[in-house]
Amino acid sequence: MWDAVDADLLAGRWNVIVLWERSRTEKRLRRERDEARERAQRAEAAATRPQRSEVERLAAEALRQPGDFWLLAGEDIAPWIADDGDVDADAVRARAAEEAGKRPGMAGVVRRRDPDQGDGDSATRTPTIRDWLRQAPC
After folding, report:
1. How distant, in Å, are the alpha carbons of 25, 74, 81, 88, 96 from that of 71?
2. pTM of the model
3. What is the pLDDT of residues 9-23, one digit of tens each?
4. What is the pLDDT of residues 39-78, one digit of tens each?
């Protein structure tokens, strides 16, 4: 009688051990899968970072904050990449100009030259009285 009870207990323990091992294996596989997904996402982000920077540089020609381009046009970079893998500059410029036209507050600031402030030390500066006095014969 005790032999049958011992056999049942051993079989039950064996089933518990098998289930426990299976659970550990499944957890390990899930963890490895999640880590692989994270690595793939990081690799994709690193690959698109230069392209995103180029899109923002082109959008800066029309928008005050180039990062706003992604808010207006969506986060996906695929529509702004040409078939050859480069950024489609004309499409980005057109969309940025279109959005700047719709939302004037987002348009880039046009910096105008203030003639009262001077041009700095440029090669074509206009002569001053000091220059005339230096050139005057004594």
Report:
1. 43, 6, 17, 18, 11
2. 0.53
3. 555 565 666 666 778
4. 999 988 888 888 888 988 998 888 888 888 888 887 788 8
Q: To 10 degrees, the CA torsion angle through 100, 104, 108, 111?
A: 140
Collapsing DSSP states into helix, strand and coil, what is residue 107?
strand
Query: Which two three-digit tokens encode residue 126?
Result: 């206009």
The torsion angles phi and psi of 63, rounded to 5 degrees, stand at -110, 145
79-88 burial: b if 16+ Cβ within 10 Å, else e: ebbeeeeebb
Domain boundaries, the chain: 2-108
**Longest CA–CA separation in the chain, Å:** 133
Q: Return the axis-axis angle of helices 89-102 and 2-59, rounded to nearest 10°.
A: 80
